Amino acid sequence: MIPLIGYTDCFSARAGGSLAIKVSTSHAEYRADLVRIRSADPNPNGPGMRFDAVPAAFAGTFPGRIQSLHSGSRAEIDCAAFSPDEDWTFCVRVQPWLLDGRPQAVLAWNGVSLYVTGQGAMLRVGGSECRVTAPMLERRWYELRLVASAGNVRLIQRKLHHDWGSEGHGTAAIAETLPPPQRIILAADRDAAADGWRDHFNGRLEHPMLLRGTFDGITPLEPSQLPRTAIHAWWDFSLDMASDRITDRGPHRLHGRLMNLPTRALRGAFWTGEEMRWRDAPDQYGAVHFHADDFHDAGWDTDFTYAVPADLPSGVYGVRLRAGSDEDIVPFFVLPPPGTATAKVALLFSTYTYQVYANYDRGNFDQTYRERRAAWGSYPHHPAEHKQFGLSTYDWHVDGSGVALSSMHRPILTFRAGQLAYPDQRGSGLRHFPADMHLAAWLDAMGIAWDAITDHDLEAEGTALLARYKCVLTGSHPEYHSPGTLDALRDYTATGGRLVYLGGNGFYWRVATSAHLPGVLELRRTESGTRAWAADAGEYYHQFDGGYGGLWRRQDRAPQQLAGIGFSAQGRFEGSYYRRLPDSHAPEVAWIFDGVEGEIIGDFGFSGGGAAGFELDRADPLLGTPPNTVVLCRSEGHQAHFGVTPEDVLQPREIKLSNAPDPLIRSDMVYFETRNGGAVFSVGSITFCGSLPWNNFDNQISTVIRNVVTRFMQ
Ligand SMILES: [Fe+2]
After folding, report:
1. Ligand 1 center to residue 330 CA distance, Å?
2. How far apart are the CA of 47 and the centre of ligand 1, in A?
3. What does pTM read for this prediction?
4. What separation in Å is there between the alpha carbon of 400 and the centre of ligand 1?
5. Mean pLDDT by 10 residues, the chain (714 residues)
6. Which of 17, 134, 267, 351 could lock 454 by a disulfide, CB 3.0 to 4.6 Å apart?
């Protein structure tokens, strides 16, 4: 357990707005105050961890309390009961994904629990139980029925497909009169002693239904074919896909709710492979996938609220919590008052990408990491040590399916000043929020006034948010964008805005949002791309908005169209340098290099030791790089561990015929002008911003970006 940790209800607020702060601590009391976060690099040779104290009305001492966490998804339904002497049948299609020896509850109510196990389905009623002796296999569909009649319950298990060689059918019986269902739980069982849930089911459920009378024939029950009078309740999971509601198509409208974000819009038992889009064949997409490690909203009570003063300068702030030797600084962003800008420059923090990566365990929590963390006194909690706050979309669930949903409503260990991503032997090893603070610290060092804005604000406010600024800067890795945020950036550059893209692998994946589940992002890792996991065939469309998921490139919106460059190659967290190209000396663009000596640019930095590294972007006219784009610099000297991104590889690399360095392993620094005085400057490297603070912010990279931003502010 982390002895002191908190989260805010939102990543940002406008001056004059408010934020709620939620804290869990084992200390009897804790102190809270406000800081402005100026720099977030724990490297003793770097720009430092710098926090300025800021007066705040909420500051003070608060009573401590431990607030609980519950992972694992389920469905909850308040169910009108049958009369006790009535015969009835419960039926559900089940696809287990993890049969690891532990019984997993498909259905539970009032002391009745229906489980799946690798040996077959099992029913417990009070102290009695019965088991089907027919094995279940992972990722295969079965139908389970409970048939209650005359003080007897039969449990029927039937496999729904006949293409493999195991026996899947079986029945069992128990001489009990079941209590009629009242509050039905699907995919978990109540753990009253722990005030929580247990026996979580990992897998898919489809078409649970309660029927009047006994249905014990061998043909699988298809609810749409049953007489309407037989249906007491039929929960059709293909409805209300963008929400956590489950809709009962029966006469009593016993609607329920999904808890903790199970995944929807997935293939059901009878998907034919002929339709790929759930909207085209909803009857084939009635499955919900539950996981023991799903997580939505920690749901902690609010400890205090911060009413952000209307005159608080825009920037990056943190609620600092302290008790004994424990400290947690919960970051958030403050925007200017509604409808205003207080600077010519905005820094667009990649909060969508922060959220998609939230609590990602990179699998590198080893001795080297721990020694670096101890030596630097960097942020003391790694996601590998604390799985209780939920997974990132870079993880797999415990049953081997990819994590498609990520919520902001929880403590996020990766969203902290000083959090090391890598024990970087050539730099600080920062990613995302702390890495982007290199840019914020640089703006302050240059004396350039700037406002903080975020992806979440961009989604809410659209292009109007950007239009107030002469120049908008991105951080190191603006990878994830929704249709709303990408449209807003496109429209900004098309209407005179000046965009400075200071990252790599930007504008790459599509994410979806739902008004029914605010603060949650959905991601389908489809088709191709550098992927942590792969969506299954037929599951490429988002549940939240019905849109096709995957790379924006697959939807004719490659990053080159917006930024002039797009993802090309990736290696380990290590950097190299750029070389100036002859075109960069043309008078139209030579101003970018005023005051810069030499042809080698950026062979230094606090991220991987060089400005061009980790993930690299290239110009490519076939993918949309505008014809008036000038490639100013090109990176070279990349380490042998770099490779071309999969979407550019058409054949196994072993049969490549040339021994020449792969031309796609490169980063292109580009400039182009758009209509109405707009312009775009892009660098195409994740490690680039790490070079800005080098030599106390006095270096070639700093000079180049100062030249660009100064011109763009005109
Ligand atoms: Fe990424």
Report:
1. 23
2. 24
3. 0.97
4. 21
5. 97 98 98 98 98 98 97 93 82 97 94 95 93 94 95 94 77 87 92 91 97 92 94 96 96 96 98 97 97 98 98 98 98 98 98 98 97 98 96 97 98 98 97 98 98 98 98 98 98 98 98 97 94 96 98 97 97 98 97 97 98 98 97 96 90 60 90 96 98 98 98 97
6. 351
